[in-house]
Amino acid sequence: MSSPEKMQLALHGDRTARFLLLKDVSKGVQTFLLQNPRITIDEIRYIAGYRQANPDALVSIAAHRDWGQNQGVLAALVRNPKTPTMTAVKLLDKIAATELRRLAKSTEVPRAVQAAARKKVTE
User: CA–CA separation, 22 vs 122, rounded Å?
Assistant: First the structure.
């Protein structure tokens, strides 16, 4: 399948096609997946936690008005090591206090995010 065909399928495909295209080696396809009008919040949460996700796609999820308010999506973005550090630290302002305490203790998040979470917990 050619790249333009993959992009069209990402924009208009069903759930199965979206999950198959998520694992595609062409990272530009992931940004087109986010533009699909039928994508659900559960799929967004999955993409936000997906370790092979394109960092640009993760920044787009964080910047989206609706997705950036969902606590599950926010937690997945902050825990994802592919999320740019500055974006993850900015998202800590929106995270619930219980999740913030978990992040401060977690060794699975980048050190800069963990340090920022610790600082917010102690404030």
Answer: 38
Separation of alpha carbons 55 and 58, rounded Å: 5
The pTM score is 0.86
Q: CA 119, 86, 35: angle at the middle one, nearest 5?
A: 130
What are 91's two structure tokens?
């998202």
pLDDT tens digit string along 24-47?
A: 877 788 888 999 899 999 999 999
* Integer Cα distance of 13 and 75 in angstroms: 27
- Which residue has tokens 């092979």? 52
pLDDT digits (tens, 9 = 90+) for 8-29: 888 888 898 888 888 887 778 8
Query: Alpha carbon of 117 to those of 36, 40, 83, 120: distances in Å?
Result: 33, 29, 15, 5
Q: Which residues contact 108 (CB under 8 A, 6 or more apart)?
A: 79
